[in-house]
Known about the structure:
Uridine Diphospho-n-acetylenolpyruvylglucosamine Reductase, domain 2, alpha+beta, Uridine Diphospho-n-acetylenolpyruvylglucosamine Reductase, domain 3
Amino acid sequence: MTLEIQEQVDLTPYNSFGVSQTAAYFADIQDPGDLRQAREFAGSKRLSVMVLGQGSNTLFIKDYPGLVLYMNNRGTEKLPGAGLLRVAAGESWHDLVKFCLKNSLYGIENLALIPGTVGAAPIQNIGAYGVELEQFFVELEAFDLKTGEIRHMSKADCQFAYRDSIFKQDPGQKLVVLSVTLQLALEFAPQLGYAGLAAALAGREVTSKGIFDAVCAIRSSKLPDPKQIGNAGSFFKNPVISRAKLASLRESYPELPAWDTEDPELVKVPAAWLLDQKGWKGRQRGGAAVHENHALVLVNRDNASGEDVVLLAQDMSSSVLQSFGIALQTEVWIV
Ligand code: EPU
């Protein structure tokens, strides 16, 4: 089948911020054959190429002059080997969580309601409520836009870290995730490390459905639904600082929360808490605003442009740098 490549496509429905920018070229990708054709097309016109899933972690600040690949391949396959699933990149992550719940496959119930596709999950090693994707990751298949070959990448190849992977570190690699293979558990073992989750379940029998429901309830109470108001979840990563820096900050801010990391010398502090001290919740700039319930979430309140969002984000990070001497890093991919 010949791949249809559209021109001058409005990206509003393809990014969860709902900003209106245009892609010069746009292709709906259903299988590796489509990617081969897209690669030839981009090569012949010398176009840059970018990959979109549900656009839930992407902020467009300009029109995109190249070819957008909208990953729309589908399928969830049980592989030989108990609890092993191969899932196409274009599947919705939350649908996969529900599929696992139904099929008594355990582990990812803590990752309910995370927006985005399965293919996007390894890019930033999605995580929430004490669980990260890498715990279940076995391998992925990726189409290499440089060579046109399909590669199999192991967990080590992907170099997962907090909201990070090889796919973010070397954009020149141009790898398009086609499918992700995960190992789920056959026996339920609740992961209640996140204090708010344990509190929500206190006094009840803990089941995977119970965790799923509690996570959905916590997320819905704090994080705005992108279908109702444009946003991309946390806009910044939680910064990692030294214990010495934490001690000096706590002289002025004794309440500053902090969590241990794998490195005993380093701790993670909540960016939302730092922003909250500076009174950012609810503030607006142009059409962009900080969510009323969570200082880490920027929303498209009133026809915001990508630039409105970025200008607001810059003011927020400057204020944190000035007051705490901490440079925030964006979590959202700015295009
Ligand atoms: N807090 C404030 N003010 C606020 C919001 C939170 O002071 O406006 C404080 C809370 O009291 C809490 C701390 O900040 O002590 C952390 O808040 P929360 O539990 O809401 O989590 P977070 O650190 O802001 C991270 C992830 C979320 C994930 C939650 C739950 C990052 C960048 N964000 O948020 O992921 O759902 O933990 O595990 O790591 C995302 O990546 O888009 C995302 C939403």
